[in-house]
Amino acid sequence: MDGVSPKFVLPETFDGVKMEITGQLGMIWELVKAPVIVPLLQLAVYICLLMSIMLLCERVYMGIVIVLVKLFWKKPEKRYKFEPIHDDEELGSSNFPVVLVQIPMFNEREVYKLSIGAASGLSWPSDRLVIQVLDDSTDPTVKQMVETECQRWASKGINITYQIRENRVGYKAGALKEGLKRSYVKHCEYVVIFDADFQPEPDFLRRSIPFLVHNPNIALVQARWRFVNSDECLLTRMQEMSLDYHFTVEQEVGSSTHAFFGFNGTAGIWRIAAINEAGGWKDRTTVEDMDLAVRASLRGWKFLYLGDLQVKSELPSTFRAFRFQQHRWSCGPANLFRKMVMEIIRNKKVRFWKKVYVIYSFFFVRKVIAHWVTFCFYCVVLPLTILVPEVKVPIWGSVYIPSIITVLNSVGTPRSIHLLFYWILFENVMSLHRTKATLIGLFEAGRANEWVVTAKLGSGQGAKGNTKGLKKFPRIFKLPDRLNTLELGFAAFLFVCGCYDYAHGKNNYFIYLQCPFSSVGLGGSGLMSPVSIYRRMIQQRMYDEYRARYLRAREDTISKLPDPLSCPTSRQRMLSVLVFCPIGGKPFCLSVPNLDLDSSEFPDYDTFVTFIDELLAFSREENSLLYKVKLSLRKEDENDQYCVTRWIDSVANPKLNHLDVECVLVNRKFLEVVPQSLYIQCDTLVYLRLHRVSFGELKSVSLPCLKTMRDGFVDVFEREGTGVFIDAPRLKYLKFEDDLSDVKVITNSVSLEKVNVAFVFGENDFAHVIDLPKRNMVSNFFNSISGVKEMKISLYTMEFLDYNWVWESYDPLPQFCNVSTLKVTFSVLNLDMMMPTLLESFPNLKSLVLKLDDPSSEKAANIKRFNGGSVDMEVARYFLEKSQVLKKLFSRPDLMEERFSKQQRMYDESYIRAREDTISNLPDSLLCQILSYLPTKDTVGTSVLSHRWKSVWLLVPNLDLSSSEFRHYDTFVSFIDKLLAFSREENSLLYKVKLSLQKEDGNDQSCVTRWIDSVANPKLDHLDVECTLANRKFLEVIPQSLYVCDTLVYLRLHRVSLGELESVSLPCLKTMRLEHNVYASDASLELLISSPPALEDLSVSLTSFHVDYLLDSGVLIDAPRLKYLKFDDDLSDFKIITTNTVSLEKVNVAFVFGEHDFIDLVDLTKRNMVSGFFKSISGVKEMKISSYTMEFLDFNRQDELYDPLPQFCNVSTLKVAFYVSNLDMMLPTLLESFPNLKSLVLKLDYYDPSREEEAADVRLSSVVVPQCLLSSLESVKIKRFNRGPVYMEVARYFLENSQVLKKLVLEFRCLVVEDGFNMLRELIALPRRSSSCQVLLC
Fold first, then answer.
1. What is the dihedral of CA 326, 332, 338, 339, to 10 degrees?
2. pLDDT tens across 331-365, in order?
3. pTM for the complete prediction?
4. Catalytic entry in 197, 283, 289, 802
5. 136 counts as catalytic
6. CA 1121, 1127, 1133, 1136: dihedral to nearest 10 degrees?
7. Distance between terminal CA atoms of the chain?
8. What is the Cα 1232 distance to its own chain's centre?
């Protein structure tokens, strides 16, 4: 054996074969490498470098934006309207919106108590909060535990419901969608979603909901996640670094720049209207949250991210759970990108740059490129370049770019910057799974919709139950379960590449790549640290104990209130109800920005002063500025003489809007001085009333918003000899009461409309009647106000003018040509001379209100009287005899009665008893004219009055009867026949006939025909025939004689047959009402409508039950003088208005297009008919549209080929009825067609009861506001208004968006008085865009 050599064992032939195979492989590699491998690998390098640059640009862009946001951007509270929702003892919880909290869970044994307990502890009124636990668990034990927990909280008064499903269709999206279908959800406006491991703070809703309440264009408010187990192990620290960057940078940048970001699936508040508008939850991908966010954003909704609002949550602490989570988070966005990219491109509601941001930045770079470049470049391409040294990778691409990207990613978690090296290795490992998931999502492979719930171990729980939690932590001890073969395979590949580079290359840094894959492949990631868990439990226990102590020991601020509030007055008892109801730790009344008190409501004046002082001191401490102050004081000499001065100085703040201070019964020497601060610090003061105070010496005045001074009056208390100079260019109403000033000057009086000259010139002026300067002052004053429209002159003013007019050199009053209304008080001493002289100065006066001072005095006896009556009667005689166009003369009967003597009353009574029946002496023609205003039944009743009246009623030219007024129909027919026979015999022609018949099958079927033929005479003016409850086959035919009545002005026919018309001659017909009649043909109907040349008012109602033929050519209306048109028709396919529509002013489109039209949405001819009809009436001034018409327009609007409504530029008044199911889309669309609308009357109908629940969630979008709301709409009336969510939403829409709205009238419908008050409070709390808008209930 010692002589045996290797060559004996391995012959030389074998060595040759071995060398030959190696050489052949090397030769093949060299042949393929240059033409194939090198170009392909070089191309891969270029592609990866390009993707790296794209990722770098994205990271740098977001870095720049986030720096600008942190340094210069306003906080969300400044960018959006935010007003905290306060508790209100008077309004109760009605000012809080109803919020739904949804908690979806699946076999959450360890954490189900966390989210349920946290949701139940939210600081929100219990009657305005609904909690849904959506349990899809398959473990019966877990189901029982969750249901028991829900019942436990429900027993404590929490409104919590436990919901389960029969299957898990749709997974989380299916559960959320099913939860929104519950009937009680229709009362909820917002929905909050928390996963099972999320624990919101109690103030979560109070910090987030106001953004949605006050900003109707915001659909989503997203909070940040805070991880309770981030220190548990190295795996959770790595996750924290990645997610912190996502929340700190990506979400913040999206919210600040485009108001868009991906919803994180939990810890967010959605507006339910936005969810419904976007199409609801869909389960087509594993990222149902992102899917909903993208769809809502494409419909114009905005999103808001609140970085300082954090919610505790748990990170997966095992690599297996984390890997499944990352697969879902990577596969879902790629799959969603595949399905929605074309929808995003075609969308027309969002701007171009937002589309670019969503497609390129949000989806392509972050969800696709970021995963591919990390794995393909750093884990595949770079290692392969070691084996192909001909391919060079620039150092900037392999080192600099990834280093910059890594540093930028570290800003989210500064405390973990020392773990940055491990984070790089960890991200390289996870890029393998993310890239794989991205490809599955893009190509929609087998695992595209795989959903594996992320396992939670409850490692973030507090001290309660922590021992059990430790026992339940899963541990993996079997080696085969800890091996991850895919990671180990890549670890081997990278290890070989690193060794090869170490031996033959120069890039020795590739060796490190085998470390993370090896560690993860062996299951070394995610090992839990019991020490960190115990530390977290201790911290949670300390927090819970501290919070419990704080809630128990919070301060009782109610005891700080002063004792006088317990005084037993009715107003104080009402105030005490508000005071002794603590809300949020302080009395409610102290937060009210209004102060309205009267010193008479307090036991003594000093108590009143003390209370005001303490209340104002509290307001200063809390920085609670008052905007309305009204004080009434009754001071005595010994009272505090400086309280008013300091109070006004205290409330004179930049927000003060209304100030009313009244000091009564005050000695003049104790008048208080108004401080200077009132005139320079109150930039927002609108109303100012000061009574019996001293102004002192004013240095400067700055009141830019002041509109009303002393109830709209200018009340000046001046020193003698200085005069009053008024320069108010926007002044509309002036009341001047002054007995001191020698000079009154008005300048810039163009806008002055109303003047009350109340004792303008004082008693001391009567001594200076020969003073020429004073008389010139009088003349100049009246000249300066000569352009007003309404004037009131007092008694003392008229006496002064009477004294001065005795001087010939005195100039008369100027001509007040614009004054249409005058109110004046005369003394009986100067009435005879002054009244005609005064009226000469008002040539265009339309209304005069006259008051006489003491006309029953002895002085009045010297007045010359023509009839020997009282002064009142003399004045009445004067106007009755002299006024040529006088229409009404009013008197005061109560005052006149007091002035009559006893003898006068006795005389009147005796005259009434003995007066003659003068009416019976009137001629028959006049009696018939009087009786013509009564129904025929009452006219016949006059026959029993006397022999004179026995037969007068037979001569009355009116016939107004109903068959229901007779016991039998045959009696009614017999009476009409006899009456008409008498009229023919006496040649007494009827000119007004109104008949109402309720016929049965067995009745006379030809009576109406012969009656109309009988009354169709040359004098017939008015014909109204109504047949109700008539079988169609018994409808009577209108005779041909009716259509040649030359004097007929009004025609109404209801449920009759018109037959075939031969000719029509109705030259005087102005009003035509055709209701549910039968027509022989459409030509007959057109002939009847188009023949009357003077037709001004037309109403046509057509239904399928009352037509003998099929209208296939439509109704042609040719009425050049038509002013009002009502068209109620569900039969005609064409509604044609000819070009003669210049005079058309009012249209009532009452179900113009019938029910059968709803199935013809694809009929282009029908759509053109709709468009043509509305274009033909586009010049009207007033329009009424029924709910059926709006339903038809809504159906047709869904077709892309349907033309929108034309612009009704002349319409100022619109009355429209909506079904609530199409209100949200059709109301803004309809208003866009009425740019100059001034008045809107809105009525809401419930069309389909099964859709009533869906309709309750209607939300009107404010993204695009119609032009009329911004420029012209002044009045809105909502009929049959109640407290329902749809009506409140409509009221909110107009109040928040109407810029010039003056009044919102609500036709109130409420059976319970308390509901009415609650509704009124909700309406008052709604924000108003128009400062002058008033809400009126009727």
1. -170
2. 889 888 888 899 899 888 888 888 898 898 888 88
3. 0.43
4. 289
5. yes
6. 10
7. 123
8. 17
